[in-house]
Amino acid sequence: MTINYIGSISANDLPATFTKFFVEPVSVGFPSPANDYLESPIDLNQYLIKNGAATFLVRVSGDSMLNANIADQAILIVDRSLKPKHGSIVVASLDGDFVCKRLQLKPRLCLLPENPKYEPIYIQHGQNLDIMGTVTAAINKFE
């Protein structure tokens, strides 16, 4: 999976874009009657970006994170201010190559793909691993 840097983003610098937001969730099983009322509008910038000064966007290519719902060409919202922990999905630089993987801290440091077609990347002594940030959301486009 390769990563292309899109740029820094701040919810405060973006124009507010409000979208209608239904109170009831949409069923993914059997349909349920729709409600005629809406919750207050939602600003996707404020919903997706918690710390604008530390947030950036990247576009991914590849399918190694499919089981984490990160598809080819998805846009990731990455927050540098969040401390990565065991199990976090991170954007990292490994020996200068950017990757998006799930971080495993124990029992052995490694970057895990979310697709069984790919092998874990075990960090070897002498390799340079730099965690760029923690992925907080992925935007997948269907059409």
Keywords:
globular, Umud Fragment, subunit A, mainly beta, 10 strands, two-stranded antiparallel ribbon, eight-stranded antiparallel sheet, 143 residues
Structure characterization notes:
The chain contains one helix and ten strands. With 143 residues, it is mainly beta. It has one domain (2-10, 48-139): Ribbon (Umud Fragment, subunit A). The strands form two sheets. Strands 1-4-5-10-6-7-8-9 form an eight-stranded antiparallel sheet, with no helix packed on it. Strands 2-3 form a two-stranded antiparallel sheet. The mean pLDDT is 82.
Brief summary of the model shown:
By secondary structure, this protein is mostly beta strands.
CATH superfamily: Umud Fragment, subunit A
Strand numbers in spatial order across the main sheet:
1-4-5-10-6-7-8-9
CATH-defined fold name: Umud Fragment, subunit A
Class in CATH? Answer: Mainly Beta
CATH architectural arrangement: Ribbon
Q: Could you give the count of β-strands?
A: 10
Order of helices and strands: EEEHEEEEEEE
The helix tally amounts to 1
Which blocks of ≥5 consecutive residues have pLDDT under 50? Answer: none
Q: What value does the average pLDDT take?
A: 82
Tell me the span between the first and last alpha carbons.
Answer: 21 Å
* Shape category: globular
- Bin the strand percentage: 35-45%
| Radius of gyration, CA atoms, in whole angstroms | 18 Å
Helix content: under 10%
The largest β sheet comes out as: 8 strands, antiparallel
- Helix-strand makeup class: mainly beta
Domain Peptidase S24/S26A/S26B/S26C: 24-135
InterPro entries: LexA-like, LexA/Signal_pep-like_sf, LexA_repressor, Peptidase_S24_LexA, Peptidase_S24_S26A/B/C
Keywords: Autocatalytic cleavage, DNA damage, DNA repair, Hydrolase, SOS response
GO molecular function, one term: hydrolase activity
